[in-house]
Amino acid sequence: MRQWIKNRNVLIGLSIIFFLIFIAVFAPQIAPHDPEKAYPKIRLEPPSKEYPFGTDHLGRCILSRIIFGARISLLIGLIVISGSLLIGIVLGTISGYFGGFADNAIMRLVDGFLAVPSMFLAIALAGTLGPGFFNMAIALIAVEWTSYARVVRGSILSVKEKEFVEAARGLGEGDFYIMFRHILPNIISPLIVIATLGIGYAILAAAGLSFLGFGVQPPTPEWGSMLDDGRLFMRKAPYIMIFPGLAIMITVLAFNFLGDGLRDEMDPRFRKEIPQ
Amino acid sequence: MTRTAAYLAKRVLLIIPALFFVSIISFSLVFLAPGDPAEVLLSSPQGSPSPEMIEAYRVRMGFDQPVYVQYLLWLNNLLHGDLGYSYMSEQPVADTIMKCFQATLKLSIVSMIISIVVSIPLGILAAVKNNTAIDDFCRFGALIGVSIPNFWQAFLLIILFSIYLDWLPVAGYGDGGDLEHMILPAIVLGTSSAAVTTRLMRSSLLEALNQDYIITARAKGLPERVVIGKHALRNALIPVVTMLALSLGFLLNGAVVVEWIFGWPGIGGLVVDSIYKRDYTMIQGSILFIAMIFVILNLIVDISYTFLDPRIRYETMD
Q1: Is B290–A245 a contact, with Cβ atoms under 8 angstroms apart?
Q2: In chain B, what are the domain boundaries?
Q3: Residue A259 with chain B: CB contacts under 8 Å
Q4: CA A246 → CA A213, A221, A250, distances in Å?
Q5: How does pLDDT run across B109-168, given as a tens digit for each residue?
Q6: Which residues pair with A28 in a beta bridge?
Q7: Is A245–B155 a contact, with Cβ atoms under 8 angstroms apart?
């Protein structure tokens, strides 16, 4: 853990993520105004001392809405990744450990899901299930679980024949015990890397879905739907388009920094110096 | 060669179950929507249909039959190239999709060119100047590229180039999709795909530079330009070139939101619009079509990989 922190990318990513979590948890204390209360008299005000990021088309404080929006984005990232990991680990483990028919059936299902470009599948699912936080989460889990299933399966295949697994089997340990006690801990590092990057992707995709109106519904403050709100007023008040997008980008960037840094640390191939 | 042939045959055959699952996913969409499928299909923004209409439609469309019979009927039509008719426009779904796909293809090609022109030189530069400020800059740029929401980037470009500078149109297709209308959406799509390709180019060249034959080439006293240009780059480009087909898939993904924002009449915008209009036959058809394109692209990637890189190990690729 200590050596990871020394990695610059890990450090940057983690700092931003902790900052965002802090903002999300203490949103009611930090936000200067009520994020959902409209003041029609002060609509589309440019940034000022009272409203540092300006006000939106209903006179709501954009800064406060962005602060509260961190809750939705981090939460959706967490839920989507947990759901995808759960499905991916279970199906990937079954597939890799048992092989045979189960492996074939699961991998063909994965192929089917991977055959549709993720954004098309997510939009079709979120659009048909109807708008809302949980339907959006389901749609995103449906497009994300496949990569975890594949990684878990691949890693299991690579450690399955190792001596320590043979030894455990020789000691008479059961399949499930071997899977969870001996194999899973050995494949955890590639999972951490793709899960970190996956959170970033989930947050980005969720913002896209909400932007299109298939995700979180107004008046709940959400970064993607804030951009959708601002769309009609961007001629008059372009600044309302700036900050929500910046918030999405910084958040996704933080997870990408962390994921990249962790990969560099965990994969010894990247640590090798290039001979000059 | 027999192993290659066996691998390729297996790879092609695996498309069938994949597309079978896709057909089930597309078919199920109507049933995922809240409410009765007939009602869902007949409902329009103008209001709900009468109970008699729903009943008549159920019988006509076969919704009174068991689900698997419905699926087989639908699949049968599908295999005959009949994707049904759009509920909204009453046009054949297949015709609309083909027309939209042409627009998407046009936009994708231009985006791809932008992506290649930006990413290959940057990736090479980053790898050659590994662990310098230039490398950091390229890597950071690529990270920004994958992290920036494409819809936000689209609006930033519209605000700058269309509203402030008034150089380019805000949106639209123009005269059959002219360059003027294409440039902003192509930049948005091109940059996100460039970010991915830059990273790949960099890591691929770094790996090539780490090989023993590079040490040999350097030991022979070859100038660095030849070592990189002739020995390393050739090998490093293999994964990048094969990945270009995949990045076309990446472009398709971005096209969903970007086409919709720019009013580009492509297949991405079509899907979004069809969902707004609850035009389920159109959604089903588009998803199937796009999956077919995607599957074929992936097949091309895998096949070209086996031919370009003889070191590939088939058993790791299933």
Answers
A1: no
A2: 34-82, 93-317
A3: none
A4: 20, 15, 6
A5: 999 999 999 999 999 889 888 888 888 888 888 989 989 999 999 999 998 888 888 787
A6: none
A7: yes
Beta bridge partners, B85, equal B92
Q: Is A134 exposed, middle or buried (0-12, 13-18, 19+ CB in 10 A)?
A: exposed
- Three-class SS of residue A6? helix
B167 contacts: CB under 8 Å, gap ≥ 6: B161
Using a CB–CB cutoff of 8 Å, tell me whether B232 touches chain A.
no
Minimal C-alpha gap between A108 and chain B (Å): 6
Q: Which of A109, A212, A253 sits opposite B272 (nearest CB)?
A: A212
Could you say which of 3.40.50.150, 1.10.3720.10, 3.30.360.10, 3.40.190.290 is the CATH number of the domain covering B93-317? Answer: 1.10.3720.10
Residue B290 is nearest to which of A120, A253, A257, comparing CB atoms?
A: A120
User: Which pLDDT score, from 0 to 100, does residue B316 have?
Assistant: 45
Of chain B, the percentage scoring pLDDT greater than 70 comes to 91
The answer to whether B25 touches A121, Cβ cutoff 8 Å, is: yes
Chain B partners within 8 Å of A107 (Cβ): 318
For the record, the structure tokens of A103 come out as 């492996």
- As for the ipTM of the complex, it is 0.85
Task: Find, among A151, A148, A124, the residue nearest to A136 by Cα.
Answer: A124
What backbone torsions phi and psi does residue A153 show, to the nearest 5 degrees?
-60, -50
CATH at A154: 1.10.3720.10
pLDDT, tens only, A53-100: 888 878 788 898 999 999 999 999 999 999 999 999 999 988 988 888
Q: Is B65's pLDDT higher than 50? A: yes
Q: pLDDT value at position A267?
A: 67
Q: Which residue of A has its CA nearest to B150?
A: A208
For residue A128, which residues of chain B lie inside 8 Å, CB to CB?
Answer: 29-30, 32-33, 275, 280, 283
